[in-house]
Amino acid sequence: MGAREFTTEAERTRRRDHVGAVGDAAFGKRRNWHPDMAEAIKAVTGREIGRARIAQWFLTTADMKPVPLWVMAALPEIAAAAAADLRERAGALDAEIAEMEDEGNSPAQGEPDAPEESVQESEPAAAEAAPDDGPAFDIDAPYLMVDAGLVPRREPEHEPEPEPAPPTGWRSKFAEENAHCWRSIVYR
Length: 188
What we know:
Layout: H1 9-27, H2 34-45, H3 51-56, H4 69-103, H5 122-129, H6 141-148, H7 173-177, H8 179-186
Helix pairs in contact: 1-4, 2-4
């Protein structure tokens, strides 16, 4: 363990801001990127640091810990590695976008906008399938007839379960002798 550094408040803030900026840019502005930063610090320096220690750097209370100088020395390398990773992922995303654009966004076989099929409207097809031979069928008619009392309401087919029998079992001699008092005590 190295010697304790004595830094000014301005230096602490500057260091904390640099670590925060690299952490946000490298790992995204999500709530908790501290474990990822701890892994990156270990990968670059070989020194293990807990995510809790990194979280202590960002406290706004008197418990705030300063960012060590050895972490500040490793920060440019961590940022460079993260930038390379982001460029690689951006390249993969760009390639995926190009592949999707090359394939086009043509609909699959059987979809309405496929070039070999025509789009059919539902109204003319429905009129051809069901010619008007009388009054229209009302889907709500059976329910209205039940509500009006014209058709009896169907009762459920299952029978209600019987009431459970009162518990039986052993009672103490005291309970047997004073059972006549319980009803008057409970129901007063």
